[in-house]
């Protein structure tokens, strides 16, 4: 969805000073600066007819509805991808636990069988030397199996994600439009003269990678998680899951910014219309149609 950029006309840009600071960032990301600058100017000078004003206001409402849908879709995508990574990791952990239990049980069975066999042998022939060898061999086998049950064996996981939701966040550019333009702008624009949401996410990504991969493997881990995919370890898969959760939380916060913009639009324009309607005693368009319930209305 192509969105307008900043308003270049200085006189029109000055009209945007009426927009609150906490809303201005969302206005810019949504591509609404040019249209709002003209609406504010025409409303101040009284040069805009009421019908034309309503058409523009409706167009803005439709654009905000589209942007809200794009934002919801992006949050949903991050949530689904995170849940998918979590389900894979949970299954791998379950398989690993089941393997440990099986090997532990085998170790116990071997130990019990060797003890019973040695005892029977001793009852049959107290002077036999072979039972000692049986006990030694059985203990070695049972011990080896028991130790193997607790040896960590990372399971290689092949994960392909050529269209990677994390890539534009990490790179700071999105030529393939993996994220909507509005969402990408919201990530890149600073909040109240502070860091951008992307900067905050990158700091969280660094912390997650520090816990998942040693420094000498950092480049490979970044190429894997933020690239087209490849062979993951359970630790790196968990790191990807956590990063997607961070992105989901960041994008969910943008819904509040959209809500603040919609509230400001209502106070700045819609409430003003209602005051004009009350003072004139006419509804917008009332000269073109009768006011009152239709005969077909319930």
Topology:
Layout: H1 10-15, H2 21-29, H3 33-45, H4 50-124, H5 130-149, E1 157-160, H6 166-171, H7 181-188, H8 197-212, H9 218-225, E2 229-232, H10 234-280
Antiparallel strand pairs: 1-2
What does the model show?
The model is unreliable at 273-298 (pLDDT under 50). 70% of the residues lie in helices and 3% in strands. The chain starts with 9 loop residues before the first helix and ends in an 18-residue tail after the last helix. The protein contains 10 helices and 2 strands. α2 (21-29) packs across α7 (181-188), α2 (21-29) crosses α10 and α4 packs antiparallel against α5 (130-149). Strands 1-2 form a two-stranded antiparallel ribbon. It is mainly alpha-helical.
Short description:
The chain contains 10 helices and 2 strands. It is mainly α and 298 residues long.
Helix content: 55-70%
Structural class: mainly alpha
The gross shape turns out to be: elongated
How many β-strand runs? 2
Number of helices: 10
Residue share in β-strands: under 5%
Spatial sequence of strands, sheet with the most strands: 1-2
Instruction: Describe the largest sheet.
Output: 2 strands, antiparallel
- What is the CA-CA span between the terminal residues? 40 Å
Low-confidence runs of at least 5 consecutive residues: 273-298
What is the H/E order? Answer: HHHHHEHHHHEH
**What is the mean pLDDT?**
78
Radius of gyration: 33 Å
């Amino acid at each position: 969805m192509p969105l307008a950029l900043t308003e270049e006309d200085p006189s029109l840009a000055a009209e945007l000073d009426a927009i609150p600071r906490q809303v201005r960032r969302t206005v810019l990301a949504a591509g609404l600066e040019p249209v709002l600058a003209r609406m504010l100017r025409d409303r101040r000078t009284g040069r805009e007819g009421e019908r034309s004003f309503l058409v523009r206001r409706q167009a803005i409402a439709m654009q905000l509805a589209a942007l809200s849908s794009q934002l919801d879709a992006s949050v949903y995508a991050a949530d689904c991808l995170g849940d998918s990574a979590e389900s894979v990791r949970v299954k791998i952990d379950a398989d690993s636990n089941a393997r440990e239990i099986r090997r532990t049980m085998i170790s116990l069975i071997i130990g019990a069988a060797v003890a019973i066999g040695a005892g029977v042998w001793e009852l049959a022939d107290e002077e036999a030397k072979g039972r000692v060898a049986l006990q030694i061999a059985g203990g070695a086998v049972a011990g080896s199996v028991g130790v193997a049950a607790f040896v960590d064996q990372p399971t290689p996981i092949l994960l392909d994600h050529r269209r990677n939701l994390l890539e534009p966040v990490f790179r700071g550019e999105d030529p393939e439009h993996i994220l909507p333009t509005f969402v990408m702008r919201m990530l890149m624009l600073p909040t109240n003269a502070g860091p951008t949401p992307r900067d905050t996410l990158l700091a969280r990504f660094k912390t997650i990678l520090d816990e998942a991969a040693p420094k000498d493997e950092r480049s490979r881990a970044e190429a894997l998680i933020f690239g087209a995919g490849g062979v993951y370890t359970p630790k790196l898969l968990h790191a990807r899951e956590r990063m997607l959760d961070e992105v989901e939380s960041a994008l969910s916060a943008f819904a509040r910014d959209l809500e603040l913009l919609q509230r400001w639009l209502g106070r700045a324009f819609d409430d003003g219309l209602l005051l004009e309607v009350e003072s004139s005693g006419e509804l917008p368009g009332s000269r073109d149609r009768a006011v009152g319930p239709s005969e077909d209305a319930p």
